[in-house]
């Protein structure tokens, strides 16, 4: 190039030219950082590889290497999957204020939530795949070449909504980042309708996942109409909690400005959703224990233990205590001004929901079994390793996504600067 | 940054990245190494095999031959695998007389042997509940009872697949690996199941079993007469269930659990044949089904003599 472009962007630069540059620039960004970034990524890679190795052992020797059984046929993997769907759905809680109420502070950080949705969905898919006895046969589910049992099986609905949500968020994030990189204003016609679609779609992923359990007549613990609404409210607690933690980390570790407004709105959302979540929990517990009868056996097992079996009791009570503490902290009027208090509240809420929407939801569905046998379940080393591996892989994706998105969003990295550098 | 870029040749940063990538790739290969022994046992034919309902008779013959060879190779056993089809005008039903079942669990044991279950897990498609007299609520049942049977204060209720007319397990399967055959039997294509275990969660009768590992059976104990959809040795990682011993009953024999029952508590037959014993039971006894309120419409009935 004999003359560097002074105005941006050069009109002669076609997508054919600038898109590969954009992809390349993202890849370069993703592999560069300070020592903390490298240490974090190497640590996560190590955990992910340990998980991959455990999964390879599981595929080779069979699911018998886990602690699952014919009585408790879903365990830690599906528990994490369920929670993760909520996290993905919760990511959209930044999108609603930004686009529905035109909140400017939110516009700047809304991509943090959308990238979280992408990472969380990838983790969801990971948790489902590691739960399969025959992952080599996943192609049996592909419409056309396999047999897709649509619309009867709720699992096929889940496949559609989860992959759809992934594509929607990839489109929004990819488009916004590319336009910012080129120094262009994103065309609202291309992405705003998709943003609104993503709001409805976020509701659908958690509703469909709840229906997966809710629709089973033989499992009274899940067979309640309150399941889907409870899924949504807890998602709208855990999602914002994680995003606040991510925003605080970005504030602390980088030079990017995160507006107070965004955090204040997220705190306000959590204040409402965490209370609705507790109300629904109380409503469900009341129905179970005031009515009594044999269908409450699972709830009795979960909260108080049944016939001397009580593996989940400490878990669920710690979940309730964590959620209550988080609610109390969040109700403090100035909580958003106190980072330590806020981070504590978010960690408590996140951990509380992880237990409740994970092991606290899945395992009692199987205990007692449909013939009222009690076979307990505690995840073993293989299951913890595989689950940790998927979490590590998800955090890697999220870290890299933010690592790439923030400099492009702030204008620190752009096509214009890249061209000037090379001139 | 800029001076790194301008350096000709390989910069230190690039070199470190290259070493990192190489180490990462090596660690990745090491991590997935256990898969190699598993992959060595998978054949392309098996991987690409079509769904049971899409196999032509000629393709089915090839599949059956391959499965027989695999059993020979894996277990050393000479077996014959066939694919008996449902007979027209037949819908199978089962009835069980709770007044005379003594809870000896011979049925469960016969099932274990006939269906080539893994020896170590002692699996069976049948679970027998010991119930206190005075309640039909299975919450008050016990499966791990010990001591001489029958106990005077108890009655016994064997539970196996109810071959529902409205089976929740079939509805939930995402890949149609399980379906209801024309004679009422709910079948599983062991070569199509992906092992998600959603059907096991959906079944209200605890009737499904998963192959958590590759079944281990001594060569001489393998039942040699096998059916594609029933008692052939199942692969690791797939679901299985009672098929009313399809390989026997579709050829006019009785299920293994009935043959093993010492008291004659079990009645099996064609629900469409008005002259059959099962029809006589349904018409003359007080009959009930398990968990009727769930709307699963079982083809498995229980009755008392009085």
UniProtKB/TrEMBL annotation, chain A:
**Which UniProt keywords are present, listed alphabetically?**
Cell membrane, Membrane, Transmembrane, Transmembrane helix
Tell me which InterPro entries the record gives: DsrP-like, Electron_transfer_protein, NrfD-like
Localization annotation: Cell membrane
The answer to whether keyword Translocase applies is no
Transmembrane region(s): 35-57, 77-102, 109-130, 150-178, 190-211, 231-250, 262-282, 312-332, 388-409
Gene3D superfamilies attached here? Answer: Formate dehydrogenase/DMSO reductase domain
Membrane topology according to the record: Multi-pass membrane protein
**Listed GO CC annotations:** plasma membrane
Pfam families associated with the record:
NrfD (PF03916)
Q: Which domain of life is it from?
A: Bacteria
The Swiss-Prot or TrEMBL record describes its family as follows: Belongs to the NrfD family.
The name this protein goes by in its record: Polysulfide reductase NrfD
Q: Which organism is it from?
A: Pelagicoccus enzymogenes
Tell me the lineage of the source organism.
Bacteria, Pseudomonadati, Verrucomicrobiota, Opitutia, Puniceicoccales
TrEMBL record, chain B:
4Fe-4S ferredoxin-type domain location, by residue?
92-122, 184-213
Q: Which domain of life is it from?
A: Bacteria
Using the record for this protein, list the coiled-coil segments as residue ranges, or answer none: none
What SUPFAM superfamilies does the entry give? 4Fe-4S ferredoxins
What is a GO molecular function of this protein? 4 iron, 4 sulfur cluster binding
Q: Enumerate the UniProt keywords alphabetically.
A: 4Fe-4S, Iron, Iron-sulfur, Metal-binding
Q: Which Pfam families match?
A: Fer4_11 (PF13247)
Query: Per the record's keyword annotation, is Metal-binding included, yes or no?
Result: yes
Cite the PANTHER family for this sequence: PROTEIN NRFC, PROTEIN NRFC HOMOLOG
What name does UniProt use for this protein?
4Fe-4S dicluster domain-containing protein
């Amino acid at each position: 190039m004999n003359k560097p472009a002074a105005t941006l962007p050069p009109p002669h630069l076609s997508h054919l030219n600038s898109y590969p540059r954009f992809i390349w620039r993202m890849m370069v960004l993703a592999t560069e950082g300070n020592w903390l970034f490298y240490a974090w990524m190497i640590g996560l890679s190590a955990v992910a590889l340990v998980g991959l190795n455990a999964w390879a052992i599981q595929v080779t020797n069979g699911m018998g290497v886990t602690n699952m059984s014919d009585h408790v046929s879903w365990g830690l993997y599906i528990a994490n999957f369920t929670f993760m769907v909520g996290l993905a759905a919760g990511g959209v809680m930044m999108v609603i204020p930004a686009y529905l109420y035109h909140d400017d502070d939110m516009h700047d950080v809304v991509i943090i939530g959308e990238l979280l949705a992408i990472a969380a969905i990838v983790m969801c898919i990971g948790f489902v795949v590691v739960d399969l006895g025959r992952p080599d046969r996943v192609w049996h589910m592909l419409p056309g070449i396999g047999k897709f049992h649509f619309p009867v099986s709720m699992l096929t609905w889940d496949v559609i909504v989860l992959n759809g949500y992934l594509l929607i968020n990839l489109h929004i994030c990819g488009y916004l980042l590319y336009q910012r990189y080129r120094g262009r204003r994103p065309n609202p016609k291309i992405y705003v309708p998709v943003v609104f679609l993503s709001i409805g779609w976020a509701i659908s992923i958690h509703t469909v996942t709840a229906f997966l359990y809710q629709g089973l007549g033989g499992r009274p613990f899940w067979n309640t109409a309150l399941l889907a609404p409870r899924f949504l409210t807890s998602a709208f607690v855990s999602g914002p909690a994680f995003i606040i933690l991510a925003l605080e980390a970005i504030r602390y570790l980088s030079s990017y400005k995160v507006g107070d407004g965004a955090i204040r709105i997220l705190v306000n959302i959590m204040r409402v959703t965490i209370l609705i979540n507790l109300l629904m929990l109380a409503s469900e517990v009341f129905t179970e224990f005031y009515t009594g009868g044999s269908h409450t056996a699972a709830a009795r097992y979960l909260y108080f233990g049944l016939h001397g079996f009580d593996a989940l009791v400490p878990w669920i009570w710690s979940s309730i205590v964590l959620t209550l503490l988080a609610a109390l902290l969040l109700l403090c009027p100035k909580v958003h001004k106190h980072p330590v208090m806020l981070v504590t509240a978010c960690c408590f809420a996140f951990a509380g929901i992880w237990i409740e929407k994970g092991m606290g939801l899945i395992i009692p569905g199987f205990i007692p079994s449909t013939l009222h046998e009690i076979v307990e379940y505690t995840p073993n080393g293989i299951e913890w390793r595989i689950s940790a591996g998927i979490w590590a892989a998800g955090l890697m994706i999220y870290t890299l996504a933010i690592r790439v998105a923030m400099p492009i969003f702030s204008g620190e990295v752009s096509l214009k600067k890249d061209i000037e550098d090379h001139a | 940054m800029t001076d790194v870029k301008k350096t000709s040749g390989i910069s230190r940063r690039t070199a470190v990245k290259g070493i990192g990538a190489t180490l990462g790739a090596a660690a990745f290969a090491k991590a997935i190494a256990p898969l190699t022994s598993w992959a060595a046992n998978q054949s392309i034919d098996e991987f690409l095999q079509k769904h049971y309902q899409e196999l032509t008779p000629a393709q089915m013959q090839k599949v059956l031959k391959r499965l027989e060879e695999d059993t020979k190779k894996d277990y050393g056993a000479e077996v014959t695998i066939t694919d008996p089809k449902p007979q027209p005008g037949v819908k199978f039903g089962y009835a069980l007389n709770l007044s005379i079942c003594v809870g000896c669990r011979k049925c469960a044991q016969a099932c274990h042997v006939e269906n080539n279950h893994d020896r170590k897990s002692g699996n069976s498609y049948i679970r027998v509940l010991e119930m206190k007299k005075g309640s039909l609520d299975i919450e008050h049942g016990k499966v791990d009872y010990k001591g001489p049977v029958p106990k005077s204060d108890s009655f016994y209720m064997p539970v196996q697949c109810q071959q529902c007319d409205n089976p929740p397990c079939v509805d939930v399967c995402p890949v149609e690996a399980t379906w209801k055959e024309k004679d009422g039997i709910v079948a599983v294509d062991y070569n199509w199941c992906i092992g998600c275990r959603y059907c096991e969660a959906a079944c209200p009768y605890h009737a499904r079993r998963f192959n958590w590992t590759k079944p281990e059976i001594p060569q001489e104990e393998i039942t040699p007469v096998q059916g594609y959809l029933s008692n052939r040795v199942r692969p690791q990682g797939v679901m299985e269930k009672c098929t009313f011993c399809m390989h026997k009953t579709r050829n006019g024999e009785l299920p293994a659990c009935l043959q093993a029952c010492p008291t004659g508590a079990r009645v099996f037959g064609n629900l469409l044949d008005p002259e059959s014993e099962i029809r006589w039971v349904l018409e003359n006894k007080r009959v009930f089904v398990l968990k009727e309120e769930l709307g699963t419409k079982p083809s498995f009935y229980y009755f008392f003599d009085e």
